[in-house]
Every structure is written in structure tokens, then in C-alpha cells.
Write a structure and sequence with these properties.
The protein contains 16 helices and no strands. α8 runs antiparallel to α10, α10 runs parallel beside α12 and α13 packs antiparallel against α15. It is elongated, with a radius of gyration of 27 Å.
Length: about 325
């Protein structure tokens, strides 16, 4: 049965027998020295193995790593459900027109009262019966944040709801749905880099190159959990870095947002790594991260408040309210 264990096969493959060859006629002292040498060699291999297993960048046996994080079927379904709030939040934020700030609407009403509205805005106004809250097409930066969430959520839901409770850790670790879940995290990072940088295509291209290589790593035959996790954290650092260097951040609100986001990230990572509440820790990990897209959406809405997209939407809201009053 041990021959079927991939961890044991890997250890045997990587181990090197350093036991010295015994002579055909050996004295008692020579046998003792040989036994001591063998013991030291085994101790050295055990020490090296322990160091590699405890390394932040290496998991000696990924299958054993996955087996230690096995949850019940019900817990995995809870994991799937807790990924959905961000999905519905983004749809609500866009379709309810939450990205059009009240101050922008007041400015638009003032312009309308002075007869300075743009006639072209009237042709772009949206009047959907089932979604009356959306006045105009959202800015690309708002759409990019929601697109990142929408791309990731279905794959994460499929993995946790259907496949994550597979009792075979090796199959679960290499399953296509898990690979898609992690790949979609990097896809979301690309989308968010565009929004956080204020629509910079150059910065998005930089993130695209890095995350594309990370996605390639997730589809390698041998899964390396620690390396892949470190790369995900690297993508988070990359796409949030513009918050620290924005020139229009006179009041320091972008730095405050960076601190809020990374407070959520650190707390979520703690739940993910430490597993403080056992099999429920992954659900807590998802719940903590719900705050992140909401923070980003509010920040981008403020960035776009005086832009053409938001002003056009605000004028549509003002026109709609004035027509109702009339």
C-alpha cells in the first residue's frame, strides 16, 4: 500500500543512500563506525527534509499538504456560498448607479438649471425598465473591477461546490476547477490594476505579463502550493502599489485605502494559513475579502466623479428627475 503513496515515492526518488559498503570481513569496531555513519547520514537527510518542508517556498509533499486541509462536504459548500456576496455586490453597484455620487448629480442639476447641459448626453442615457437605477454606461474603471470579480467567482464556486470535497488529495490538488479558480485570481488582478491606476494601459500591461506567467505556473504538471501562493501575494502587491504613488492624493486618502485593503488581506491570509477555526477558516477567508471590491469601487467612483462618464450619468439622472417633476 505504501508503494501507492505519492509522498513515499517522491521521498525514495529524492533520497540518496550514503551508507558505506561493508567489507566482506569486518571487525566489530568497523561495523560500529559504519552504523554511526549511516545514522549521521539519515539524520542529515531528515534535517534537510525538515528545512525544506518548513520553507515558505517549498512543500515537500503537496498531496500531504492538501490532505491536511481537507474539509467536509458541507464546509466546502459554505465556502462556495461565501464567494457569492462580492459577485452580487458588483452587479448591484453597477445596475443601481451607486457609482454616480450625489455631489456629481447636484453639479449636473446646477448645469441644467443654467442651460449648459450637453445634448449628446441625452442620447446616451439608459432607460431600462428592469434596472431603472442605471442612468448611463458605467466608466471602464468601474466595469474592470466588477469584471475581475465576475470572472473569478464562478470558477471558485464550481470548485468548492462540486470538486473540493474529493477525498483524494492528489486529484483535488490537480483538478482543472482548482487551477481555473487560481488562474482567475490572476485575471482579476489584471482587471483591478487597470482600475486602481486610473485606467493606465501601460501599468495593466505590466500586470498582464506578470500574471500571465503566474497562470502558466498553475497549469504545470507538478503543483507547488507555496510558490503559487507567494505569486498571488506578489500580484496583490503589484496592483495595489499605485495607491502609494498617486500625485493627486493630497489628503492621503489613497494611502489610507491601501492600509485598509492590506488589513483585509492580512486578516484573510491569517485565516487561510493558520486555520484558527478549523474547517470554517476558508469561509471566513472569503467573507473578510468581501470588503475589498467595495472599497475599490468607492475609490474609483470618487476618482471618476468629475470625469465625462460620471458627469454624463449625473446629467441623465438630473434629466430623468426633472422630467418626473415636470
Amino acid at each position: 500500500e505504501n508503494e501507492k503513496d505519492p509522498c513515499i515515492r517522491r521521498r525514495r526518488k529524492n533520497s540518496v543512500d550514503t551508507t558505506p559498503c561493508a567489507p566482506s570481513i569486518a571487525s566489530t569496531s568497523a561495523s560500529s563506525e559504519s552504523a554511526a555513519a549511516t545514522s549521521r547520514a539519515r539524520s542529515l537527510r531528515s534535517s534537510l527534509s525538515l528545512r525544506r518542508a518548513s520553507s515558505s517556498f517549498h512543500v515537500e509533499c503537496p498531496e500531504q499538504y492538501a490532505n491536511q486541509r481537507t474539509m467536509t462536504t458541507f464546509q466546502e459548500k459554505v465556502n462556495a456560498v461565501t464567494i457569492l456576496p462580492s459577485f452580487f455586490l458588483c452587479f448591484h453597484y453597477m445596475l443601481a448607479g451607486k457609482w454616480v455620487l450625489p455631489a456629481t448629480i447636484e453639479t449636473a442639476k446646477d448645469l441644467l438649471s443654467r442651460g449648459k447641459e450637453g445634448s449628446s448626453y441625452m442620447y446616451g442615457c439608459i432607460n431600462w425598465t428592469y434596472f431603472p437605477g442605471i442612468p448611463f454606461m458605467p466608466p471602464p474603471t468601474i466595469i474592470a473591477i466588477c469584471l475581475g470579480v465576475i470572472v473569478h467567482c464562478p470558477w471558485s464556486f464550481i470548485y468548492h461546490w462540486r470538486y473540493a470535497a474529493n477525498p483524494n488529495p492528489a486529484e483535488r490538488l490537480k483538478h482543472w476547477s482548482r487551477r481555473m479558480d487560481h488562474s482567475a485570481i490572476h485575471a482579476a488582478s489584471i482587471c483591478w490594476s487597470y482600475s486602481i491606476s486610473g485606467g493606465s494601459l501601460v501599468f495593466m500591461l505590466l500586470n498582464l505579463l506578470y500574471n500571465a506567467d503566474c497562470i502558466r505556473c498553475h497549469w504545470e504538471e507538478e503543483i507547488k502550493p507555496r510558490r503559487n501562493q507567494v505569486r498571488i501575494v506578489g500580484s496583490m502587491l503589484l496592483y495595489t502599489s499605485p495607491l502609494l504613488f498617486m500625485q493627486d492624493d493630497d489628503d492621503g486618502s489613497r494611502v489610507v485605502l491601501f492600509c485598509k485593503m492590506w488589513t483585509s488581506f492580512v486578516l484573510a491570509v491569517w485565516f487561510f494559513v493558520a486555520y484558527p477555526i478549523g474547517g470554517w477558516s476558508h469561509a471566513a477567508f472569503h467573507i473578510v475579502l468581501v470588503a475589498v471590491p467595495y472599497l475599490l469601487l468607492d475609490m474609483v467612483a470618487e476618482m471618476e466623479a468629475e470625469g465625462e462618464w460620471s458627469m454624463a450619468a449625473a446629467q441623465c439622472v438630473a434629466l430623468k428627475s426633472s422630467s418626473k417633476m415636470g
